[in-house]
Design brief:
579 residues; TIM Barrel; 18 helices
Length: 579
């Protein structure tokens, strides 16, 4: 007990799983002044008492890879992550942030974020005032106005664009420009940035289809920025390269190790996909981590998702299908020309061959076209097909599954929503995942919450995973699962006094029903600014969520309280050693 004053909240008789991996035990928790006051047998009087009988109490969940940078400005709750028990998020990933910025670049940034992160352009235009310039001013807009704790890396694209301008952002940087970027990054971190993120992925193009600015940076520029990170306490790195979605080259492996070494900080990357049909992929993709550990002066951590994330596709707008070999040249055509090409059997053969090739990399998971489920349809020709599987429709029609899928989307002028069935949903792949989760170089995460809003739903991965642990495949014990969702990411980012239930720690606390915890099915909902749509879903079994001791969710519904803080480097984070 910290002192003898009345507690704000006492949770009685719950199963306490503290985030350390230790076995759970039945006990009480006291909360006072935003911190955990006592754990075990707590008898102090409390303003509010919660009966925890039959419930589990654990630390608030930490989502290490989100893109809530924009959404928090119109949705301070960070929905739906909040109702799934997330109390702390990390944004500014993949090299993309909304600051620093000059006013003239707001439109460029909006269109870039719409393209690379699937944020509706109309929502970005109508939902945000864009009334900041510096990184510190952006964070200041969030201060006191969020329901979760939120930390933000500083994106390379914004740094490069701010220093080099629209005319030079696609060119190699001069020594003077690199020096200016380093200075700007340092200023951003001094104002609260958690570190540095960058991208070299060819899937990241701006609103005009050109490479985003960070893709034009030399290795020298990237390492110079990482060396600046080393000068600031409580910082970290995140990076994406082409090989994250395919297979790392030796150059990419050296880059990741070199970045971590230069910054003297851990680097995490997104996302390690696991498929028993490609058993050599995981060992190869973990080579940056292995080599960093062998060197002893670097650390590289791969993020991997513990669930299969629901996502939809269509043939009308940009989506992951564009990344399949032989697809982009067809999908980028004007709609009328695209339809004509899609109807051509020769084009269909080339697209199918590309999708099933080794060159498809992780996007080959989308190649099981026979297993696609038809979603929303828009023509009389497709009446009655919604909810059906393409293979069944193909069998009735006597046509090949891929050709059948093309017939369906063409009949809707490409507007048809389709839901892929991944190729890696089998016992062998799940066993590979279970084994990989225990690798010390791997961390659970990669939701992309706040991004790809009409395409995928990753925000519910935590409740979906816990449901699987408790009542499904049971690949892990519940104590280990919770540790991997709380303390492990908390320690990677050096979150001070968060990630565990421990006396004196900040009271980020979740109370849930182990018999019912789960995610609801995602639905397309027009609840964004300008009535833009997104996939979203509520939770089941999340009874209470506390952020800094204040209840933000009750029985799966947000209370409206805004007790979250902006997590600032050095103030709210400790330096994490790579040795």
């Amino acid at each position: 007990m910290l002192d003898d004053r009345v507690l704000d909240v006492r949770i009685n008789g719950a199963t306490i799983i503290d985030g350390t991996g230790r076995p759970g035990f039945v006990g009480d928790i006291g909360i006072r002044d935003g911190r955990i006051s006592a754990i075990g047998e707590v008898t102090e009087p409390a303003t509010r008492v919660i009966d925890g009988t039959g419930l589990v109490v654990c630390p608030g969940f930490v989502d290490p890879h989100t893109h809530y940078d924009a959404q928090l400005l119109w949705d301070p709750q960070a929905s739906p992550s909040n109702v799934h028990g997330v109390t702390s998020i990390i944004g500014g990933n993949c090299g993309f942030t909304l600051a620093p910025i000059i006013a003239a670049d707001a439109d460029f940034t909006r269109r870039m974020m719409a393209k690379v992160e699937g944020m509706p352009l109309a929502a970005l235009e109508e939902g945000i005032d864009w009334n900041w310039s510096s990184f510190g001013e952006y964070l200041g807009v969030l201060d006191g106005n969020i329901a979760v704790n939120a930390g933000f890396l500083v994106g390379h694209c914004a740094i490069r664009r701010k220093v080099m301008g629209a005319e030079r952002a696609m060119d190699p940087a001069t020594d003077a420009e690199i020096e200016a970027m380093v200075q700007l990054l340092g200023d951003c971190i001094d104002s609260g940035g958690l570190g540095f993120s960058t991208t070299r992925s060819s899937s990241h193009s701006d609103g005009d289809g050109d490479p985003v600015p960070s893709r034009m940076a030399t290795t020298e520029e990237v390492l110079a920025l990482c060396r600046e990170v080393a000068r600031h306490p409580g910082t970290t790195l995140e990076a994406i390269t082409e090989g994250c979605n395919h297979m790392f080259t030796e150059e990419e492996i050296d880059l990741f190790v070199g970045m971590s070494r230069a910054a003297e900080r851990p680097l995490n990357w997104n996302v390690l996909t696991l498929d028993a049909a490609a058993p050599d992929r995981a060992p190869h993709q973990l080579q940056p981590s292995v080599r960093a550990a062998e060197a002893g002066d670097a650390r590289v951590v791969a993020l991997t998702m513990p669930v299969l994330v629901p996502m939809n596709m269509n043939f009308l707008t940009y989506c992951a299908l564009w990344n399949l070999p032989n697809w982009r040249e067809v999908m980028a055509l004007p709609v009328a020309d695209r339809i004509e090409q899609l109807k051509d059997p020769v084009t269909q053969h080339a697209m199918l061959t590309g999708a099933q090739s080794k060159e498809a990399g992780v996007f080959g998971r989308l190649s099981n076209f026979a297993g696609y489920r038809v979603g929303d349809t828009y023509s009389l020709a497709n009446a009655g097909l919604s909810g059906r599987i393409v293979s069944d429709i193909a069998a009735e029609r006597g046509t090949e599954p891929f050709a059948t899928l093309i017939d369906i989307v063409v009949a809707d002028d490409l507007r048809t929503i389709v839901w892929p069935h991944p190729t890696d949903d089998n016992p062998e792949s799940w066993e590979l995942r279970r084994a990989t989760w225990e690798n010390p170089h791997v961390m659970l995460g990669g939701s992309d919450a706040g991004a790809h809003l009409d395409r995928m739903f990753g925000a519910g991965y935590i409740t979906q995973f816990l449901a699987d642990v408790l009542r499904g495949r049971k690949l892990l014990g519940i104590e280990r699962a919770i540790q991997m969702l709380t303390d492990v990411p908390g320690r990677l980012f050096g979150l001070r006094d968060r990630g565990r239930l421990e006396a004196g720690y900040l009271a980020d606390v979740v109370v849930f029903d182990p018999a019912t915890i789960d995610s609801e099915a995602p639905l397309l909902t027009p609840d964004l600014p300008a009535k833009s749509i997104r996939l979203t879903a509520g939770s089941r079994g999340i009874e209470h969520v506390f952020v800094n001791g204040i209840e933000t969710v009750t029985a799966g519904v947000a209370t409206g309280a805004l007790p979250g803080i902006v997590l600032r480097s050095g103030r709210d984070t400790d330096t994490v050693s790579v040795r």
